[in-house]
# Entry
Amino acid sequence: MNLEAAKKRWKRLTAEIRGHDELYYQLAEPAISDEAYDALLRELTDLEEVHPTLRRPDSPSQTVRESRDDNFPPYEHPSPMLSLSNTYSFDELDAFFDRVARGLEDDTPQAWSVEPKVDGVALALHYREGRLHVAVTRGDGKIGDDVSANVHRFINLPAELHEPLSFEVRGEAYMDRSRFTALNAARERSGEEPFANPRNLTTGTLKLLDGRESARRGLSFVAHSVVEHDLGESHHHELERLDALGLPGLPLRKVCMGRDEVVEWIRHLDASRAELPFEIDGAVIKLDKLALRRKLGATSKSPRWGIAFKYAAEKAETTILRIALQVGRTGAVTPIAELEPVQLSGTTVSRATLHNREEIARKDIRQGDRVLVQKAGEIIPQVLEVLKDRRDGSQKPFAFPKKCPACNEPLLHLEDEAAIRCVNPACPAQLYRRLVHFASRGALDIEGLGGKWVSILLEENLIQSLSDLYRLNLESLLKLERMGEKSAANLLAALQVSLKRPWRRKIFALGIRHVGEETARTLARNFPDLNALRTATLEDLMEVSDVGDIVAQAVLDYFQSEALASEISELENLGFFEESEETVERLLQDFKGMTVVITGSLEHFGRNELKDLLSARGAKVTSSVSKKTSLLIAGEAAGSKLSKAAEMGIEIWDEARLLSELNDE
Ligand code: IVH
# Structure
């Protein structure tokens, strides 16, 4: 491939990878399996290998991408939280052993720690004199979210370590299988959308603002690394020290000598998955001797002394009872196989996605077929293979309907995409999904308005559009059978609150194709109000970094669609877009280029509010004072950051100064 072609491919790949990152980390709705994701990343790395000029510091091959959450204070990791490189085959594992032997200039068998790869959420716990001081998520690897309040409520962390030590331990937060099953069952009973898997539930629980709810759900921690190497000379000593200190350690870990023992234990772990209280997606293989690790070091993304061996997804056999169609928020029609319920990776599976018409044709999937299903990356399972020799003639091929099952309008097969679409924006199925999305957590977060109530409101004809939500009143709500006076009043109050949500969340709530939370934030920064966004041209949109042609076109299409545009004007007439005006992120760039640290407690601003405000004005807000800091904003009772900044001669404002500077505009 020549450089030009490579560049093009690189651009597509990075855009695709970033899209999947967003789906995975922000929306907790992965669209592809880990394996497929790793294949994309691998292609990117290979491409950069051949054309090193493409390898820039912000390439997905060089960065650990995970989102941060504005509701939690940022916390800078003293040393970056890296991840491990992955492999799926023993050949690649051998190549890893060879690399290590070359790096160490020693090809005698080494001691390796082989451990379960916990499919949880990475956490760093900082202990001070035996007590948990701060707990931080990975974030982007450099700065994470301080989620201490929730971690203090973990069910298996001791109140105090057996010795008053200060150090950082890393590991995974997880929800144990039995709790996961019980919680999901309760959710389904109350008509709420169940969590897709324990990992998503863990992410959701860690980010809860209501500590009591988080405690009620009950998360656990398992330790797998010590950051400051003063607990022993090898990894397994460190882990033993952690056990002795009372921290929950990894079960089924073993020190193996040389390649063959490693492979044997990897297989053993795979076979023993069911014994573990958490889900695992592989084994981690790490050099045991810390001195050898130091010799090998790390790349910007992962250490050279360890690797993750990922297991192929679990499979199960079942029958397709029926093929149904599901219409998504943007009209994409996805065929779904309704299955005879079967146990798979610890959860009961009764539906599998069939992706699109081609997939059904290619695999010749019929209703009534015996099939192998697989959970790839813990998303909705997929049909891996049809067991054709089990057919008895009763299986029926599926004729893809020409009309939308929900609105009966003709379905379109657009040339440039695999999906078949219902392009009728008035389609009730799309409307339902749009409403659910509109009210969902990252969007307007309208409490009490989940899928169950959206369908009731639609069925009872109380709403026919997004704007109708704001026309609901007590009288009409009380006519509904299961709606009491209190819930009705709460719902109306929640709707009022939702009007005040920031502009970026409103953009996200509109449900523009390909516009996730991160993209909505970028759009909000660059197009400060509805009119700016609605009148933006393709060029305007593409000028914004992080907005590519796909997103830009989707924004244009959205506002060009007549039905959606009328939905928008209805909302506009209700004042929906004005209410959030005070939080509109204006294009004031008066803090541009400044690196600001906020410390102490402020009277007039919430920490995150101020952070948003400053970021919107071009500042970079960081958590610790360094050479790069240009301004420290110090509230009441500021401590070490204030003295450090003063020592370094950094400009310092108190809250009064901040207020006057902000008011000057
Ligand atoms: S050691 C440099 N050990 O998997 C990272 N990680 O992609 C060293 N994980 O970031 C991590 N189980 O969040 C390690 N037994 C284990 C693990 C484990 C799960 C996670 C961890 C890490 C990621 C690797």
